[in-house]
């Protein structure tokens, strides 16, 4: 397959990313050693509609789900699966992911919304689970608090069992527990994190906290100490600062097994705006200076963790894929 240079869009940002990506046409983001860590670089998903448009990232002819994943996996060594947040995965899906990716490829998988306290569309639940919702089955959305404990137990079991093929193939990275902004510091909530780890075992979890109170001057040290004591990987983030929803950028490895850095972009104007779409929030293309400023953070984390995943969540067009390849280039140059 050859790359089709004719994009379906004339978006200036995508055009700029395309020009930058052209210089990286022969670069594949294979695992790289930084310190003692094996570092993998990828993006949050491979099927975003702005990414799959002709000429943006995929070559001509890569039109099916299978073709796209195979091509993506030829350029990167890992990916984060976002679709599992909206709909519970099934074993057949995980089996296809195993078949369509080379040995050594790794999937980080986002936890389903109900597992982290978010609401979900009940129409997207498996029929066997939806039938147990009663009158809530026809609601626009349902929260975990609206569901019986036995039904929630089944949600966790569905999720864990569906990913078994990935785990058995050695392609399962971690389950991203991305908690909502209303998940605040409390004894009950730290207990929920440990409960999540127990429910998902033998799968590994990583935790992203999106309420800044977890990192306040008073609570922050306790958050870090607790995660370190329990060896819970606390996701490091790069995101817009100066808003009520901003979580500070920090380099803190809380588990020797795995460190994760997720890059959300730095578009502060829409980060905290109510009703902002995913595209509006994450439509940010890092420049080279910004990427280079992150290299020391990766090097510091690489001294403490055995594995590290760097995930570009600036999911708009080819912003994430271009930045991921550029980040690989910067780390390789340092090595």
Quick summary of this structure?
It contains 13 helices and nine strands. The chain has 335 residues and is an alpha/beta fold.
Helical segment count: 13
Which band does the percent of strand residues land in?
Answer: 5-15%
Number of separate strands: 9
Provide the gyration radius in Å. Answer: 20 Å
Q: Based on helices, strands and strand pairing, what is the structural class? A: alpha/beta
Average pLDDT metric: 93
Distance between the termini: 32 Å
Structural shape? globular
Helical amount among residues, as a percent range?
25-40%
In the sheet with the most strands, the strands line up as 1-2-9-8-7
What is the H-and-E element order? HEEHHEHEHHHEHEHEEHHHEH
Regions with pLDDT < 50 over 5+ consecutive residues? none
Describe the biggest sheet?
A: 5 strands, mixed
Written overview of the protein:
- By secondary structure, this protein is an alpha/beta fold.
- The chain contains 13 helices and 9 strands.
- The strands form 2 sheets. A 5-stranded mixed β-sheet has the order 1-2-9-8-7. A 4-stranded parallel β-sheet has the order 3-4-5-6.
- β3, α4 and β4 form a beta-alpha-beta unit.
- α1 packs parallel to α13 and α12 crosses α13.
- The chain is globular and about 55 Å long.
- The mean pLDDT is 93.
């Amino acid at each position: 397959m050859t790359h089709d240079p004719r994009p379906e869009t004339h978006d200036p940002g995508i055009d700029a990313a395309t020009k930058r990506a052209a210089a990286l046409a022969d670069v594949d983001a294979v695992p790289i050693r930084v310190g003692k860590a094996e570092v993998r670089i990828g993006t949050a998903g491979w099927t975003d509609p702005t990414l799959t448009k002709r000429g943006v990232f995929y070559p001509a002819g890569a039109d099916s789900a299978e073709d796209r994943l195979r091509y993506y996996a030829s350029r990167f060594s890992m990916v984060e699966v976002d679709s599992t947040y909206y709909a519970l995965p099934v074993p057949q899906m995980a089996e296809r992911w195993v078949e369509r990716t080379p040995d050594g490829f790794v999937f980080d998988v986002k936890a389903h919304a109900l597992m982290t306290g978010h609401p979900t569309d009940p129409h997207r639940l498996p029929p066997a689970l939806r039938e147990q919702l009663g009158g809530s089955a026809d609601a626009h959305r349902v929260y975990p608090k609206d569901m019986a404990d036995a039904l929630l137990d089944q949600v966790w079991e569905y999720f864990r069992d569906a990913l078994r093929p990935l785990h058995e193939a050695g392609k399962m990275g971690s389950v991203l527990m991305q908690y909502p902004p209303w998940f605040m510091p409390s004894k009950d909530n730290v207990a929920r994190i440990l409960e999540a780890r127990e429910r998902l075992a033998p799968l590994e979890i990583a935790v992203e906290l999106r309420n800044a109170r977890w990192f306040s001057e008073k609570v922050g040290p306790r958050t870090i100490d607790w995660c370190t004591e329990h060896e819970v990987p606390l996701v490091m983030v790069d995101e817009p600062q100066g808003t009520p929803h901003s979580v500070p950028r920090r380099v803190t490895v809380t588990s020797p097994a795995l460190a994760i850095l997720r890059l959300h972009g730095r578009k502060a104007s829409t980060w905290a705006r109510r009703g902002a779409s995913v595209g509006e929030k994450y439509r940010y293309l890092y420049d080279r200076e910004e990427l280079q400023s992150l290299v020391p953070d990766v090097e510091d984390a690489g001294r403490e963790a055995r594995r590290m995943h760097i995930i570009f969540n600036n999911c708009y067009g080819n912003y994430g894929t271009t930045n991921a390849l550029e980040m690989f280039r910067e780390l390789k140059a340092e090595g």
